[in-house]
Structure formats: structure tokens, C-alpha cells
Amino acid sequence: MKYFLLPLGCQMNQSDTERVRTVLQGMGFTQTENEEEATLLGIIACSVRQKGIDKVYSRIIKWNEMRGHKNCITFVSGCILPADRERFLKLFDLVFTMNDLPELPDMIRQYGIFIPTTDNRQQTTDNHPIINIQKPLVPLFSKKDKINPSANMDRFWVIEPDHISEFEAYIPIQNGCNKFCTYCAVPYTRGREVSRKSEDILEELKDLVQKDYKSITLLGQNVNSYGLDKKGEEINFAELLRRIGEYGDSVDKEFWVYFTSPHPRDMSDEVIEVISQYKCLGKQIHLPIQSGDNDMLQRMNRKHTLDDYRHIIHTIRRLLPEATIFTDIIVGFTGETEEEFENSRKAMEEFKYNMAYIAQYSVRPGAVASTWADDVPKETKKRRYHILTDELMKHSLVYNQSLVGKTLKVLVNGFDRNNAYLTGHTEGKIVIRFKSNNRNLIGKIVKVEVTSATPLSIEGNLIEE
User: Which DSSP category does 281 fall into?
Assistant: First the structure.
């Protein structure tokens, strides 16, 4: 029996996919990249962007057409808005939230039965049993009056992930969001904030380190609000980082720990101080700004000002001068004037980001702003996008050029498009390539002397394997 799984969206969905893989493989399924040979077809969806949902619809149409010549079961889970969920109920065989993943084997068993391989009448050509579709199963969502995607997350987190990579891994530390930014649908797709037990997080991290994982990313919609939902029962984010740092100092293994995404409202000086104290805490901070204009930040319900954000950046520069800073920013949000956009451009100029993920605003059903006019023309959004992209390129190039002549540690993650080169990233997550065809270096941390730079990457020579 084979399964095909399509993950869409953010790193959290990628991490969720690894736990779905564990459950499916525990049932005896093996993964395939060929949809035609799969008995079980699944999508980990993302309702946060319309493009992600469009991909879901195009795939399920294709899969339902395949039913004319094969038996198969389809399912969808992940980050799903209520409106999308209702539509998916009519298109997929199974629709469930991630906290219901432990029930997936029972759902599949209810849907059909496995035909023994001794039954020569229904035996696959590869000698694997197939599923005989007998009756439709009422999708799990329709059994519940109210869906709470964050309820009982502990039973989901206890599933050991089947990691896609052998040297880079994600660890979910919380789920959901309480911030309700007006442009964002996450509180409606993932529910309210729920923190995972710190002892489980630390246990998972220690296991990864002992297995020689080199890059570990702590995941959450608002990682630095970790523990706030369990005051008095759980440690806060700074203390979680401290305990990770202390463990890193106690073992003779080199690894880097990152986190994404924090919210400026909960980003304390203590977090930055802790990062500066421990070698295993990666010197790279992803701090979304979304807009550089105070009026716009208020309309977005970000609940911080540009000066609040500026204080965090100054603290990073003071305590972590070697750190790179990444951000997220939106252009063309409802009502954005030329003056408000110019303030965002000025913020990009002031903070000199190493990387910025720039999004052209699109309406998401369920978010507060979905009832507001999407009144910035597409051409204006594109123009503003390109202006900010040019601003990013200018400052990232200056930084990357400052690295020329320096020797940096690099985590090698694969071959460049030119197989004569290996590619990887520095501790600050700057993309780098160097000439080598030694595949044994993949997954290792090596030393590279930087010889040249472009706006978004650098190049160098391997000096130590």
C-alpha cells in the first residue's frame, strides 16, 4: 500500500507533515511520489494564502477524476479556514484537524477494508493489498458542533515525527495564535495559543542532537509567547532557550537552534540576552515588521509601534552585533497610502535587513480585514513590491560584501544546480556555495572562506572538511 502526501504552506505545515508520515507508515503504507500508484492521497493545506487553496482545488479535481480507473481514499488537513473546510467536506473523503491525527487509522478503517493478498481476485500487481471502497465515511468535522484546532494538542505532539531531512529538523513548541492581526487567518485555522510541555520539547531536541542533527528550528505562530497560556505551570520562552543553551554547552556536539516566528509585542530583551550567552543558539533573528507606519500597524492590530520595534532591533544590534535579521512585510494592505508605504520603505532602509519576505496583500476569508475594501490596485502592489525588493537587495549586498575574506562555518545541505558546487547556509542563514562534489559533506558543518558576494548569496572556497 502506498500513499502520496502534498504539504503546502509554512514550516509548521512541513513539520505537521512529518508526524502524518509517521502515522501512515505505522499503518503499513509506504510513500510514493507517483500519485497514480497511491491508494491514499493526502494534502496538508494552507488557507493563509489563496494560492495555497487554489493548489488544493486543482489537486482534488485531478484525484477525483482518477477514481474512474482506481480505488483510492483522499484526505485533507492542516491550516484550513471554516469556509474552505465546508467546501472540502464535499470534495475529500476525510477532513480532519491535526489534533485528530491519532484517529486517522480508525477513520481509514471505517472507510474501507484491506483485502488480504491471498484473495487472488483483488490483488495488486506489486503484491500489496489494496483498499476496497465499501461505503463513504461521514467526515470527522461534520460530527462536531464546534471545531477547536488547538484542543488536545499533546496527543498530536507525542507522535514521533518521521523527519524528511537527516540533519535539519523542526520542533513545534506551541500552536495557534491570540493576536488576531486583521489581515491574518491563523487564529481561525489553528485556534488559540497552546504551549507544549517544555520537558517534551527538550527531550525531542536532545534526541535530535544525539542523532547528529545540525540545524533545529523551534516552531510556533508566536514562539515568544510560549508559556503565557500556562503561567505558573510552565517556563517562558527565554527560560526555554536558556535550558537549550545550557544543554548545548554540556555536550560535545555542534548544532544551531533557531526559532520562528516571534511577535514584536512579546519580544523581550531577556530573549536576546539569552541568545547572546550560548553558542548553540543561532545568531539569526526573524522579526516580522509587516509595516513601517504606525497608523498602518494600528489598522493591522499589531499592537506595537515602530519605536517599540526599533528598540528590539537596537537591542539585537547591541547584544548580537554578528546576528542577521530577517523580516516579513506586507505591501498594499487595505487603505495603504503612498505616505504609509514610504514609511515602510524608510524602515527597510533603516533596519537594513539581510532577508525580507515581501507579500502583496490578498484578502483571506475569516480575517477581520476580509470585510474591508481591497482598495489598492494590483499594479500599485506590484510596484511597491519591487521598490521594497530593490531596497532589500541594496542592503543585503552591502552586508554580504562585508563577509568577503572572512572564514565562516557553513552547514552543507546539498548540491547547487551546478553539480560541481555544494550549497549550504551560514549560522546567520546566508546562502553560500563552494566548489566541491564531495557528497559526504552534506549534513556537515565545514569552514569556507568567502570570495565573492551577490545580494542574496555568497560564494567561497572550502578550507576545512
Answer: B
